[in-house]
Amino acid sequence: MVHKIVVDQDKCIGCGACEAICPDSFKMSGGKARTVKAEVEELTCEKEAVSECPVDAISVS
Ligand code: SF4
Predict the structure, then answer these.
(1) pLDDT tens digits along 5-56
(2) For position 38, which CATH number holds?
(3) Rounded to two decimals, what is the model's pTM?
(4) CA of 28 relative to ligand 1 center, distance in Å
(5) Cα 49 to ligand 1 centroid, rounded to whole Å
(6) pLDDT greater than 90 at residue 1
(7) Residue of minimum CA distance from atom 8 in ligand 1
(8) 51-to-30, 58 alpha-carbon distances in Å
(9) Plot region of 31 (φ>0 → left; ψ -120 to 50 → alpha; else → beta)
(10) In the chain, is it the N or the C terminus that has fewer CB atoms within a 10 Å radius of its CB?
(11) Total domain count for the chain?
């Protein structure tokens, strides 16, 4: 099953936590987090990034 990862650019405060936790999927750019891989087959560290994001800016489906 393919999971989509989305960072809400309006919510992201650029703390860098998601990149630190899961650099394969998130990269900071212009003070915001962007998705490196917008889709993954299996969620691994992405789930931790979701739970650690202080503003709930990351969603996976
Ligand atoms: S953890 Fe959340 S607020 Fe921090 S950079 Fe990532 S998406 Fe933005």
Answers:
(1) 999 999 999 999 999 999 999 999 999 999 998 899 999 999 999 999 999 9
(2) 3.30.70.20
(3) 0.94
(4) 9
(5) 8
(6) no
(7) 12
(8) 23, 9
(9) left
(10) N
(11) 1
